[in-house]
Amino acid sequence: MNSLREEYSTEMIILPIIIIIIWYLVCDVFHLIPSYMFPGLTDVANSFVKLVVSGQLFKDIFETLYKVLFGMLLASVVGITLGIMLGWFKLLERLCRLVISILRPIPPIAWIPFSIIWFGIGVGPAVFIIFMGCVFPILISTIDGVHRTDPVLIEAAQSFGASNSQMLTEVIVPSSVPYIVSGLKVAIGIALMCTISGEMIGSSSGIGYMILTSTNLFDTGSTVVGMLVIGVIGIIFDYIFSKIQERIFW
Amino acid sequence: MTFEIENVSKVFVSGEGKEDVTALKDINLTIETGKFVSFVGPSGCGKTTLLRIIEGFENPTEGTVKDDGEIVTKPSNRRGFIFQNYSLYPWLNVIDNVIFGLGINGKPEKESKERSLEYLESVGLKDFANSYPHELSGGMKQRVAIIRSLINDSKSLLMDESFSALDVQAHTILVKQYSYQIKLSFFPEDLEESRKFLKLNLSIQEIERMKNLKS
What we know:
The complex is a heterodimer. Chain A is mostly helical.
């Protein structure tokens, strides 16, 4: 397995620097692309400073992160609990399998109309869409983790006289942790996508809302700031989960 | 009388188009308390299957296994089982693996840890108490797996080639230290393995003698 040090090496900043130089030359020096099509580096820098000074950027980041984490928390609680139950009790899994198979492929944004009808405008729809987007990857990887528990570890616990609940807490759950964390890592990426989509339609705050309103005002600099902020948040989450995965050695 | 194995047969049903496999046919065996029994036979002759049926991991297709008069239907902590491939919990360190069974049965943690340290010391693994299974060699893992079962004071111990990864030295230490505890055991091991036991003079009489010495 590659270590984080290898994954985040100094070589990786070379390409971004080249892209930034080309971008600067094309948009800012030679003006080959008009700024309403795509902003120059200086436009983006100006918008960034403006958004930081006014405090609007931090407010929007906070709003977006709040929704992402709230939605993820709900999806994790439901996904992990249900996943362990469905993975362990075969009959329950067979009962739920078709419903899950039908709901799973539905893109989370398809729930936007209902989310607005049910929760109005605000935090509710975004959290609901994040939940719908994240719960399935978490659920499926948890079920997978339970199924992949080494049968010998289960038999060993049985020979020590473990009860059903002890089996779940002492063997099944710890053994599934690597799969659960992989599911969470996939889900956090989906959560970011869902949040931005949700904020663009059923919201009045957050990075998604900022991107939408700035585009409407031809403030493409702010649009790109919003997009880059999402990218950076994504990298940070990815780094956090990679760190957690490094600690899970089984 | 401890174990009564009566007319035990086991047939594994194969998939479509394949013939069913008869692993065991009409096995009858009575093993009294204090006996040390080793099953010897070629690979695939059903040694492990019989052992798994005695533990209760699998039910026989026909016949019954009785443990002190009680029909075995599921695994129980009356019967300790040591697996061939260690079966240590990779997320627990050595000491937590050793006390796993004691914890399941509600024994106080502090006492269990003190006891397990004594056991670990006897097999030369005290310094590895806080190591994780992936940091140990095959033989070390097997020693941990063996004392994890021994520490539970089960009425009987079922060993499925449990000594296969041990070197002669560790083998000797374990057998000398703990054979008094082994009231009844099955070693479905290969002939070479059984010879090693003979070399170590581990006869039934010796176990009885060691048992008397300790008690």
